[in-house]
Design goal:
Oligomer: single chain
Distance between the termini: 37 Å
Helix content: 40-55%
Structural class: mainly alpha
Shape: globular
Radius of gyration: 21 Å
């Protein structure tokens, strides 16, 4: 993604859509995407998958809809799968890239151009969104009249809760940003600055869950932070412990999240988000008895996601290398 500037290209295409459209400051999501009122597993966690970009594509489709449509306007696709400003133009490919040939190695061991692989990922995402189930599908792809090929370019987008159980599908409409409508708001820069491209599905799911909690309890979030006990995390939001903990750690490293502390939420997050190792192990001991309290920080969303990602991953690599070197010398990595 860094070598080919894939995130820059996808973000540029999204900015073009935003500029010629309604220029929303926030993208509004119905809560059913994150937590279902009937207690069933929400679509969000069904899309935390080891392969594919289905969650990313669905969020990008909601972004595109809200740039184009007003509140309660029904969604209809008028965008092609390929070409400038197409659906595939919104995707940053993260596959293995061979610079000499200018091709990507797909999971089928075939070499594909960037355009081919982006279209393939879009189609695979639509398949995944449709296969969530007859009532839970987040997209519907029609077939040709003879029952043959799937007409991906004519796909329909469903509301965040899925297609529904009626004969008429619950097609997507833009929700109003009001708590009574059970919605949460996501800053537009999550899309425009590349964060939707660089975060993996578990990190996105964790971030959206914490964002939901922060908007449910705004005063508590600002003063002491929000948290999730294991039972609520699993039963209310359907997040596994490993995905939650890994997601929180990486979001913290990227500066999108912090341990609750007594300072303004709009403070400039210039300090490196990494804890020193002594503080880290002290907090690990406390984690046995009570959950971390978190605060969601939006300032970092205004910065280039790819640059921050590379900076923090490089720093983490150096820390791991240092710790490994210390271990070979028989030293504890957090001592001088």
């Amino acid at each position: 993604m860094q070598k080919t500037k894939a995130v820059d290209g996808a973000s540029r295409a999204l900015r073009d859509v935003w500029k010629v459209g309604r220029k929303p400051a926030e993208i509004v999501l119905r809560l059913e995407l994150i937590q279902r009122p009937d207690g069933e597993r929400a679509p969000l966690t069904r899309l935390v998958l080891p392969r594919g970009i289905a969650l990313r594509f669905y969020l990008l489709a909601l972004f595109e809809a809200q740039c184009r449509l007003g509140v309660n306007e029904p969604w209809a696709n008028d965008r092609p799968l390929t070409g400038v400003g197409s659906w595939s133009d919104f995707i940053a490919i993260d596959g293995a890239y061979h610079s000499a040939s200018g091709t990507y190695m797909s999971d089928t061991k075939q070499e594909r151009t960037g355009a081919d692989l982006r279209v393939r990922q879009v189609k695979s995402s639509l398949d995944t969104l449709e296969k969530l189930g007859p009532e839970r599908a987040l997209a519907v792809v029609p077939r040709a009249k003879n029952g043959g090929r799937r007409l991906y370019e004519q796909f329909s987008l469903m509301k965040e809760g899925g297609r529904g159980g009626h004969q008429t599908p619950d097609a997507y409409t833009v929700p109003a940003p009001h708590w009574s409508a059970r919605t949460i708001a996501v800053p537009t820069n999550f899309f425009l600055m590349g964060w939707v491209q660089v975060l993996n599905p578990s990190e996105i799911a964790t971030w959206l869950t914490l964002r939901t909690l922060s908007q449910w309890a705004r005063e508590q979030h600002a003063e002491t932070g929000v948290y999730l006990y294991g039972k609520a995390r699993k039963e209310d939001f359907g997040l596994r412990r490993d995905a939650w903990e890994d997601g929180c750690n990486m979001l913290r490293n990227f500066g999108l999240l912090r341990h609750a502390r007594a300072s303004a939420l709009d403070a400039d997050p210039t300090k490196s988000p990494f804890l020193d190792l002594v503080d880290y192990f002290a907090r690990e001991m406390r984690e046995r008895y009570e959950p971390y309290r978190w605060q969601v920080i939006d300032q970092r969303l205004n910065e280039d996601a790819m640059k921050i990602c590379m900076k923090e991953l490089t720093l983490r690599k150096k820390q791991l290398e240092f710790a490994a070197e210390q271990r070979t010398q028989g030293k504890k990595p957090w001592t001088n």
